[in-house]
Design goal:
With about 300 residues, this protein is of the alpha+beta class. It is built from 7 helices and 13 strands. A hairpin with a 2-residue loop joins strand 9 and strand 10 (about 200).
Length: about 300
């Protein structure tokens, strides 16, 4: 009755959000009796389609590591000018949907990230101004096909076929729900990834983040306005403290190349699973989990 979709809500956030807060408070106070049990397994991504999906690379130490493994020097500007690519936003997949890929030879990888959803951001907004336009946060699995990336980048036009549909967490939350973990710029909690039910990594999102979210949003709005419902990603979460693990297979493989001269960890195979989740200080899941299996795609 308030908003049929999240896009409808974010389009009129100043009007709609107080009404949603009122319902939320009534639910917490057990004042509403006609309720349904929330089943995150039945959720689509919060925005199944979005007007824009732009993914940054806020953790520059991750980029530095990749280039080091190739014996390539990283330009100094990478520390001052954010990297960003524009992904496909017309066909996001749900947090429990299979990852359909035609061939294992593509080099299938997950990327565990955090994303924000904005309302309308004017062109040329400063980082300080951009901060006020961040309305929701969620998790994302930015699926990457690593063996297709070099050929695409060599053409000079960036990612396309190497970036299939992304999946987002069942729930997007308002910043106030994160308490002290959200400082208005960064989310200071570990992001946990399990590969085939084995802990793969839990780096802290607030550590070693070179470009905070307002900076990334402002970068996206440098030469164009951002429409309400724009999704901006952090890029792969990565800490210098390697004991925290990693958020993608590519990073592990780069560390292996640096240490041993070659990678020993394979990319994902058909049947492999990945689960991405974040917990608060009391161990409660904040966004629900992205829980997916890689399945061979067969064209009709």
């Amino acid at each position: 009755d308030i908003a049929a979709t999240l896009q409808a809500a974010i389009d009129n956030w100043s009007e709609i959000s107080p009404k949603l807060v009122a319902v939320y408070q009534s639910l917490n106070n057990n004042e509403i009796t006609d309720t349904l049990v929330f089943e995150q397994a039945e959720c689509e991504s919060p925005l199944p389609r979005a007007y824009q999906w732009a993914d940054g690379s806020a953790y520059v130490n991750h980029v530095e590591l990749v280039r080091k493994a190739r014996n390539a020097e990283m330009p100094a500007t990478f520390w001052t000018d954010p990297l960003m690519y524009q992904g496909g936003s017309d066909a996001f997949i749900g947090p429990r949907d299979d990852i359909l890929i035609a061939s294992e030879e593509y080099g299938i990888d997950f990327e565990s990230e955090v994303a924000v959803i904005t309302d309308d951001v004017p062109m040329g907004a400063s980082a300080e101004q951009a901060a006020s336009h961040i309305k929701l946060l969620m998790l994302v699995n930015d699926v990457s096909l690593r063996n297709l990336i070099p050929g695409e980048l060599a053409k000079g036009f960036g990612f396309f076929a190497s970036k299939p549909s992304s999946a987002f967490s069942p729930v997007a939350v308002t910043p106030d729900e994160l308490g002290d973990a959200w400082d208005g710029k960064k989310l200071h909690l570990p992001l946990t990834t399990y590969l085939n039910e084995t802990l793969f990594g839990q780096p802290n999102c607030g550590v070693d983040m070179t470009f905070d979210f307002p900076t990334i949003v402002a970068h996206a709005a440098k030469t164009r306005p951002l429409s309400a419902g724009c999704v901006i990603g952090s890029g792969t979460i990565s800490n210098y403290d390697r004991s925290a693990g990693s958020s993608c297979l590519a990073e592990i493989r780069m560390l292996e190349i640096i240490a041993d001269g070659k990678p020993s960890t394979s990319f994902m195979s058909f049947g492999d699973t990945v689960r991405i989740e974040m917990f608060d200080s009391e161990g409660a899941s904040i966004f629900g989990s992205i829980d997916q299996k890689v399945v061979e795609y067969k064209a009709p």
